């Protein structure tokens, strides 16, 4: 069943606000999707390159770059599993236009990592690194949102290998390519750099509610070039 996008895009254009929900009619059981999105039958698996093997004895998560402390942090898997967790239910929006409503995640809030391993005051962005060179840059404000998680679980069970086991980022309010699977490092940056897809023609910010899909939209703010 294909779900057609709600009127949020038109409303945003008319009133100059990108917020959804203002005055629109929505059926109670119909999720409101960002413009141009549809709901697929199942959660697709989508990534570039192979699924990395996980060995808890050698695996680590590095926090490096412009840290407040002089040195970088290297967490082992047992360090990560000792951190506090929280839960999140959120829709998942891929730039290829599928949206999966109501996924339930559990994991370490990004705010928890930021408070335990603080960035320098000058940090503006983070680069989230995975195995095999995949990366995504995220503005510090998007990363520091309460709903941003380093997820270890989905639907009450550990992530499956293809969905990012042992740990993936979930930035629920951005297109899913920013939700890096198999996270191995968090780099604090004082100058923005583009990640894997951002360097290959995708939007630097990636807000699905503003339909920020492609990098050319950055030139004139919104929409395709005339
Ligand atoms: N490491 C890594 N993470 C990644 C990707 C990737 O290629 N490599 N693809 C991204 C994209 S484009 C999407 S849509 C989601 C898909 O997540 P899923 O496979 O769990 O549905 O993962 C994101 N995270
Ligand atoms: Mo995607």
Describe this structure in words.
The protein is α+β, with helices and mostly antiparallel strands. It has one domain (2-219): Oxidoreductase, molybdopterin-binding domain (Sulfite Oxidase, Chain A, domain 2, Alpha-Beta Complex). It is built from four helices and ten strands; from the N terminus they run H-E-E-H-E-E-H-E-E-H-E-E-E-E. The strands form two sheets. A five-stranded mixed sheet has the order 2-1-10-5-6. Strands 3, 4, 7, 8 and 9 form a five-stranded antiparallel sheet that branches. A hairpin with a 7-residue loop joins strand 1 and strand 2 (73-76). The longest helix has 8 residues, at 8-15. The radius of gyration is 18 Å and the shape is globular. The chain starts with 7 loop residues before the first helix and ends in a 37-residue tail after the last strand. Residues 1-24 have low confidence and may be disordered.
